[in-house]
């Protein structure tokens, strides 16, 4: 079985997104988060998502040229309008803004509106924990799972992540969903 390095896989994935209309600036981070999820043993948020991403790009549900903006700022909070940006792009901005607010106010809250699939939330909480702060992230989702014994979907996956700094090494990251 052929094997690719993580870097080669991320480059390949980024090239796919560039071919679908993204510039390199968002394409590379999208690919990095997908590969990160695969390396952490969460392939449901890894590169296997690429065909689905292509479908939602082609359907116009994911914007390849989003006009993201900070819609509202408060001393400890920010609201980001993502304009259907890939979650990997909007959530990186949210993590950076939450960390910036936390450094200034002691706590930081970033809300993201109108984003698309966020992928592995642990990636973004890890970014904040690497800056020496604890982080919590959650994401809304449509109903996509079936209750035990039911015949139709009725519950969302409700992704959730927490990360805390851990000495000088990698932070402790919990990334889960139902």
Distance between the termini: 32 Å
How many beta strands in the DSSP annotation? Answer: 8
Largest sheet: 3 strands, mixed
Please list the strands of the largest sheet in the order they lie side by side.
1-2-3
Strand content: 15-25%
User: What is the helix tally?
Assistant: 5
Helix content: 25-40%
Element-by-element helix/strand order: HHHEEHEHEEEEE
Model description:
The chain has 178 residues and is of the alpha+beta class. The protein has helices spanning 6-19, 24-39, 50-58, 87-105, 121-129, and strands at 69-74, 77-85, 109-115, 135-138, 143-146, 153-156, 160-164, 172-176. A three-stranded mixed β-sheet has the order 1-2-3, with helices on one face. The protein starts with 5 loop residues before the first helix and ends with a strand. The mean pLDDT is 95.
Topology:
Blueprint: H1 6-19, H2 24-39, H3 50-58, E1 69-74, E2 77-85, H4 87-105, E3 109-115, H5 121-129, E4 135-138, E5 143-146, E6 153-156, E7 160-164, E8 172-176
Parallel strand pairs: 2-3
Antiparallel strand pairs: 1-2, 4-7, 5-6, 7-8
Helix pairs in contact: 1-2, 4-5
Q: Which key phrases capture this entry?
A:
single chain, 178 residues, three-stranded mixed sheet, 5 helices, 8 strands, globular
Summarize the structure.
The protein has 178 residues and is an alpha+beta fold.
